[in-house]
Amino acid sequence: MTAPVLSLRDLRTEYRTDRGTVQAVRGIDLTLQRGEILGLVGESGSGKSVTCMSILKLLKRGGHITSGVAEFEGRDLLQLSERQLTAVRGEKIGVVFQDPMSALNPTMTVGRQIVEVLMQHRKISKKAARDRAVELFELVRIPSARTRIDSYPHEFSGGMRQRVMIAIALACDPDILIADEPTTALDVTIQRQILALLKELRDRLGMAIILVTHDLGVIAETADRVMVLYGGQVMEEALVADLFAAPCHPYTRGLLAAIPDPRQAGRPLSPVRGSPPDMRTPPPGCPFAPRCPQAMRICETPPPMFDATGNPALQAGQRARCWHADATAPAQIFETPS
Amino acid sequence: MTQPLLALENLEMHFQTRQGPLKAVDGVSLTIQHGETLGLVGESGCGKSTLARALMRLYRPTGGQILLDGVDITTLNEKALKPHRKKVQMIFQDPVAALNGRMTVGELVAEPLEIMGIGTAETRRTRVAELLDNVGLGADAADRFPHSFSGGQRQRVGIARAIALEPELVVCDEPISALDVSIQAQIVNMLSELKRDTSLAYLFITHDLSMLRHIADRIGVMYLGKLVEIAPSEALHTAPRHPYTELLWSAIPVPDPAARRDDPFETGEVPSPLDLPSGCRFRTRCPYATDLCAQAEPDLITQDDGHAVACHHPLHGSTSNTQQEQENA
Ligand SMILES: Nc1ncnc2c1ncn2[C@@H]1O[C@H](COP(=O)(O)OP(=O)(O)OP(=O)(O)O)[C@@H](O)[C@H]1O
Ligand SMILES: Nc1ncnc2c1ncn2[C@@H]1O[C@H](COP(=O)(O)OP(=O)(O)O)[C@@H](O)[C@H]1O
Ligand code: SF4
Ligand code: SF4
Ligand SMILES: [Mg+2]
Ligand SMILES: [Mg+2]
């Protein structure tokens, strides 16, 4: 296999707040290959956004990275100075947020906002930057690009604004695009357009994309590989087809079972019982244990990540953080709690 | 047919804005029967929440009628409305924002009973315990504050409050959109459970079309202030007749990697509600549009099977409205 374009090891991030320390990310490993769309899925608060924002050190106030390495082009992003990071953000790694309105400057035309990004990173004339901006608008399929470029953000619909955000993120041909719930605030029709656009960009520009969502439908339509997050940790990781066909982790299975099945319309749904953990005091063992229908006594001990080697429950490339995946475990660990 | 619980007749809610009139709800007619769940879908900004607020009489509609159990409540003043208010309650998307953080869960659930002057403090306490039990929180929750609850639990508090007065209709505006995936199914199951032994009806507004198919008896589809199609849930999914419904359905992400679609998806832009197209409002995005569509606005016409559609060239073998009109003429 070729070297990954980004590799994140043992990332730990916490938020110190008045009401205690939130352990948002608790040891996440992530590798991203060139030209790959990696989906991050999980409930709200599972650590998807904090993981993404940690990579570029864009954490909000109170956020601290307490350990980890983010290797990109032979350097550890987490060790870079603010000045070095500014060069990476926008130039090498583009970011798209859930709410495009909050990320755009309402008092500046969208064209000027792209031109500023371009002139900040490239030595080009204003004229050349403007031409490039029009080209980018065409790339993200904004109709009448040459005239729309002089519009203000509020003159665009939600879907168009999200395209503008993507255009800005793509301005300097980044190697990686991080898209944090880029379609959550949009309608299904616009969502499908944006997802089709992401796939097209990956195909045409060979970009690697981290796509954050809580919608398994979006994952199935778009991602090549998936990581399922819960309680600040990766629960399971697999190729998209394997995750849907042979989910190993009980949380993944619970999520898949909760999707309404059109063939069962009118019957009760199958929810995951209970509620997500308070990340100020996460469960000491497996974070999913309080809600897990298959929890055992051993689950009070945090399970490590198991891979396919010697564990027939897992496919090649699939990994799961669950004691049930451990084929070498002695039988007595499978006792249910008394 | 028995008298519907709710009937909207040509309901209009136009707002005056600096850029001119905005027709957020523009002549919507529909009925909800006792015990029925009517789903309402449509793109953001098409007027779903405005319709809900207008029928709750949180707005004074600018036209049309709202009949609740046969009584016209469209223009009643606040005092005359009071006995009717109790029949229709609402659940909002964001349970956190809708709840007063300084009140305990018990006080919050008792509040509607107090306002209506129902029972004594003692009987209200018993009723609150019962309601909290019904929504799966348990009577112990009464002394806690909502901020110590998760999103799903807070939504349960919102629901307990909404059903306290034993309403006949609960209007649910995106009740699950802010909730975690694993929790959404809990809330939907609970809502179905609550109506099982009563004649409670729901108007269920959501973006989640696959969830709607699961719970709604009938579904209405809105586009730019108009109802464009309304039909039994199954028929609307398997054989939509309005091109917009077809488009919406085709855009739902399918949770099955084997069914993945990689085609580009071009659907055009939603027109500004301040500057509506002539004729059919959907024509700027409709692949089937003809000259007629630019000239005449299609009426919502109910066909023999109870499936209603507003389109000059409906899909799936139904008789075209225009044809039908010509035959009727
Ligand atoms: N008080 C108001 N004054 C002016 N315009 C309004 C007002 N309330 C709503 N609108 C406009 O009316 C239209 C319908 O809005 P509404 O909130 O009903 O949409 P919706 O279908 O509920 O959308 P969503 O799915 O995003 O919740 C929108 O164009 C909105 O901007
Ligand atoms: N600015 C912040 N201040 C305090 N806690 C935060 C902040 N941002 C995120 N968190 C906490 O970090 C955890 C992970 O959050 P996040 O990564 O945003 O989740 P999601 O998976 O929904 O993107 C949650 O417990 C969340 O409450
Ligand atoms: S480790 Fe135990 S509690 Fe955690 S998911 Fe596996 S079986 Fe369930
Ligand atoms: S009336 Fe015409 S434009 Fe409108 S939906 Fe029907 S075919 Fe399309
Ligand atoms: Mg997030
Ligand atoms: Mg709304």
Total beta strand runs of chain B: 12
Going by helix content, strand content and strand pairing, the class of chain B is alpha/beta
Based on the structure given, which CATH architecture of chain B is correct?
3-Layer(aba) Sandwich
Average per-residue pLDDT of chain B, rounded, comes to: 89
Task: Enumerate the strands of the largest sheet of chain A in spatial order, edge to edge or round the barrel.
Answer: 6-7-8-3-9-10-12-11
Which range best describes the helical content of chain A: under 10%, 10-25%, 25-40%, 40-55%, 55-70% or over 70%?
A: 25-40%
| The level-1 CATH class of chain B | Alpha Beta
Q: Could you tell me the strand content of chain B as a percent range?
A: 15-25%
- Rg of chain A is 21 Å
- Strand arrangement, largest sheet of chain B? 6-7-8-3-9-10-12-11
Count of helix runs of chain A: 11
Helix proportion of chain B: 25-40%
Helix/sheet category of chain A: alpha/beta
Uncertain runs of chain A with pLDDT below 50, 5 residues or more?
A: none
N-end to C-end Cα span of chain A: 46 Å
SSE run of chain B: EEEHEEHEHHHHEHEHEEHHHEEH
Number of domains of chain B: 1
Q: Biggest interface: chains and residue counts?
A: A-B, 49 and 46 residues
Instruction: Write down how many β-strands of chain A occur, each being a DSSP E stretch of 2 or more residues.
Output: 12
Q: What small molecules accompany the polymer chains?
A: adenosine-5'-triphosphate, adenosine-5'-diphosphate, iron/sulfur cluster, magnesium ion
